């Protein structure tokens, strides 16, 4: 009974327009920032290195390099300060958490892009019958 009530209340605050993304993906997060009464949008583009939690309290960690320094942000997926999340490219990784990227330097920090093959086959060309 309690679980149903919690789900009912939290459904009101869940975001429905959030794209599917996972660890290893490069995302562009647009954050609403209010300074001196004025609101503006600031983008933060980086690699998702972790996802944690579930439901209303689910978080994800985005890491990027800025002027040679590593910058990380832990963000709530359902936060009202997140305007939009756009997946720039899908990553092909074998881990649930990519904390090892913190120790890497330069090209080692790159994550391979996942190449999705389509299921559509090329149209078959009828063969000429040989006599």
Structure summary:
The protein has 131 residues and is mostly beta strands. It is 8% helix and 37% strand. The protein has a 5-stranded antiparallel beta sheet, with no helix packed on it.
Produce the secondary structure layout.
Layout: H1 2-11, E1 26-35, E2 38-52, E3 59-66, E4 69-76, E5 82-89
Antiparallel strand pairs: 1-2, 1-5, 2-3, 3-4
Structure characteristics:
5-stranded antiparallel β-sheet; extended
> Could you tell me the radius of gyration in angstroms?
21 Å
Q: How confident is the prediction overall: mean pLDDT?
A: 86
Q: How would the global form be characterised?
A: extended
**Terminal Cα span:** 77 Å
Number of helices: 1
Sheet with the most strands, sense and barrel status = 5 strands, antiparallel
Q: Considering DSSP H and I runs of 4 or more, what fraction of the residues is helical?
A: under 10%
Number of domains: 1
CATH architecture: Roll
Q: What is the fold named in CATH at topology level? A: SH3 type barrels
Alpha-beta content class: mainly beta
| Poorly predicted regions | none
- In terms of DSSP E residues, the strand content is 35-45%
Indicate the CATH class. Mainly Beta
Written as H for each helix and E for each strand, in order along the chain, the element string is HEEEEE
For the largest sheet, list the strands in their spatial order: 4-3-2-1-5
Number of DSSP strand runs: 5
């Amino acid at each position: 009974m309690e679980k149903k009530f919690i789900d009912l209340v939290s459904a009101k605050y869940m975001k429905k327009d959030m794209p599917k993304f996972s660890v290893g993906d490069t995302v562009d997060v647009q954050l609403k920032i209010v300074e001196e009464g004025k609101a503006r949008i600031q983008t933060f583009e980086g690699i998702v290195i972790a996802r944690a939690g579930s439901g209303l309290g689910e978080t994800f960690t985005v890491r990027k390099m800025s002027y040679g320094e590593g910058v990380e942000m832990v963000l709530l997926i359902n936060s009202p300060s997140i305007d939009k999340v756009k997946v720039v490219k899908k990553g092909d990784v074998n881990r649930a958490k990519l904390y090892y990227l913190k120790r890497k330097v330069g090209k080692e920090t790159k994550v391979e892009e996942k190449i999705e093959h389509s299921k559509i086959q090329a149209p078959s060309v009828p063969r000429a019958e040989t006599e």
